[in-house]
Design goal:
The protein is mainly beta and 365 residues long. It has one domain (7-16, 39-364): AttH-like domain (AttH-like fold), CATH 2.40.370.10. It is built from two helices and 27 strands. It has helices at residues 10-16, 84-87; strands spanning 45-56, 61-71, 78-79, 82-83, 91-100, 105-112, 118-120, 126-129, 132-136, 143-149, 152-160, 165-166, 173-175, 181-197, 208-222, 231-239, 244-251, 257-265, 271-275, 280-283, 287-289, 296-298, 301-305, 310-316, 322-324, 332-342, 346-353. Strands 1, 2, 5, 6, 7, 8, 9, 10, 11, 12, 13, 14 and 15 form a 13-stranded antiparallel beta sheet that branches. Strand 25 (322-324) and strand 26 form a beta hairpin. The two termini are 23 Å apart.
Length: 365
C-alpha cells in the first residue's frame, strides 16, 4: 500500500522537477476478475508490490521488497511549453530492497524508465524495468520475480496458498476516505522458493543459496488521491496460525487519522473487512531517527483487534530499513520487516510514509 506525492506522474516529477496534481479523470468501477486483473490497467496510477521473509538451508534470514509503479501524465501538465502527454505515454519506476536480518543490514535500489526499458502487459502479470521483472510463472498461477538490490540478486517463485483477498466493499474496491476509492487485491500468503546470491560486487556471478519462505503481494490501481493527507501507516501481518491482517491508517496532520480500515484473512482463506472501530493501532513511543533524511519514525506498536483475539506487539527486526527514493519518486518512506509477538505471533511488514516531513513525536500520540 502506498503512496503520496509521487502518485502523480513519476517520470514528470523526475524530468521537470515540478509536482503536478493527481490525474483525476473518472475511472470505471467494475467487478474485479482474476487472474485478468493481475495485468496492467489504463488507470492513472497503479502498483504491484511484493514483500517476504526468506530462510536459507543454513538458517540465515533475509527479507525482501520488490515494487513496480506505473502512472500516466495528468492533463495540463507541461514540460516547458509542451504538454507532457505529447512526450510521455506512461512512466514506470521500480524499488527493491534486501534486509539481512541476522546481520541487521538493509540495502535498497531504484530505477525509472528514463534509463531502462520498461513496460507492463495488459493481458497478464508481466511488469519490468530493465532486468527487474515480475511475471506469471510456468505453472500459470505462481509469480516469478527476478531483481537485484545493493549487491544481492534474487530469483524467486511465489505460489499463492489461499484465494486472493479482495479488500473493501464491494469486494476489491477499497475506500480511501476523502481520497476516493482504489481497486485493491492481495495474495496475503504465498510460499516462496528460489535462490539468493551475494552480497558481492557482481551478484549474478556469485554462488547461489537456496531459500524458502513466505510472501505478501499487493496490487492497487485507480484514480484516487491521498496526497492531501499527512502520511500513511500500513500493516501486513502474517500470523503463525495461518491467518493475516491488513490495516491502513491515513494520518491527518493533526496527530490523528483521517481514515482507517483493514481486512482479516482467516486460515482457510475467507476475507473479512475491518472498520476503524474494530481495531486499534497504538505506537509504544519507541522511535528511530534516520541520519540520512532526518525522518523520525515510530518503530513499535500495540495492535489490537478484540473480536479476533489479536493483541500483539509489532516491532522491526532492526529499525534501519528506510527507503530513500527521492531520486525516482521524491519520497522517503520506511518499509520494514517486523516481528509480531503476543496472542497471535508471526511476522510481517510495515510501511510508513512522510515522516521526514511530519516527524513522529511520542508525546503527541
Amino acid at each position: 500500500m502506498l503512496r503520496f506525492e509521487w502518485l502523480t506522474v513519476v517520470v514528470v516529477l523526475v524530468a521537470s522537477g515540478c509536482v503536478p496534481s493527481v490525474f483525476d479523470q473518472p475511472y470505471p468501477v467494475e467487478p474485479v476478475e482474476l487472474p485478468r486483473d493481475d495485468a496492467a490497467h489504463e488507470a492513472p496510477i497503479e502498483w504491484w508490490y511484493w514483500v517476504g521473509h526468506l530462510e536459507s538451508e543454513d538458517g540465515a534470514r533475509h527479507a525482501f521488497q520488490l515494487t513496480f509503479f506505473k502512472a500516466y501524465p495528468p492533463p495540463g501538465v507541461r514540460l516547458g511549453i509542451v504538454p507532457a502527454t505529447w512526450l510521455i505515454d506512461v512512466g514506470h519506476v521500480a524499488h527493491t530492497a534486501v534486509a539481512d536480518v541476522d546481520a541487521r543490514r538493509h540495502v535498497m535500489d531504484q530505477r525509472f524508465d528514463a534509463y531502462y526499458r520498461a513496460g507492463a502487459s495488459a493481458t497478464d502479470l508481466d511488469v519490468f524495468v530493465g532486468d527487474w521483472r515480475a511475471s506469471r510463472a510456468a505453472d500459470g498461477v505462481s509469480h516469478q520475480l527476478a531483481f537485484t538490490s545493493g549487491g544481492y540478486a534474487l530469483d524467486l517463485v511465489l505460489t499463492p496458498l489461499k484465494p486472493p483477498s479482495l479488500h473493501g466493499d464491494p469486494p476489491g474496491i477499497q475506500t480511501m476516505g476523502p481520497g476516493g476509492v482504489s481497486y485493491y487485491v492481495s495474495n496475503t500468503r504465498m510460499a516462496v522458493r528460489g535462490e539468493i546470491r551475494g552480497p558481492c560486487l557482481l551478484p549474478r556471478s556469485c554462488p547461489a543459496t537456496t531459500v524458502t519462505g513466505q510472501a505478501w503481494f499487493d496490487h492497487q490501481w485507480g484514480d484516487f488521491r491521498i496526497d492531501e493527507f499527512a502520511g500513511w501507516d500500513w500493516f501486513a501481518l502474517q500470523f503463525d496460525d495461518g491467518a493475516e491482517v491488513m490495516l491502513y491508517l491515513i494520518r491527518d496532520g493533526a496527530d490523528g487519522y483521517a481514515s482507517a480500515a483493514g481486512s482479516y484473512v482467516s486460515a482457510d482463506g475467507r476475507t473479512r473487512a475491518l472498520t476503524a472501530d474494530e481495531f486499534e493501532v497504538v505506537p509504544t513511543g519507541d522511535t528511530w531517527s534516520s541520519p540520512a533524511t532526518g525522518a523520525v519514525y515510530p518503530v513499535a506498536w500495540r495492535v489490537v483487534v478484540p473480536a479476533l483475539d489479536v493483541d500483539v506487539r509489532v516491532a522491526p527486526f532492526f529499525p534501519e530499513q528506510e527507503m530513500d527514493t527521492r531520486a525516482t519518486t521524491r519520497i522517503v518512506y520506511w518499509e520494514g520487516a517486523v516481528e509480531v509477538r503476543g496472542s497471535r505471533p508471526g511476522v510481517g511488514f510495515v510501511e510508513l510514509t512522510n515522516y521526514d516531513q511530519t516527524p513522529f513525536v511520542p508525546a503527541r500520540r
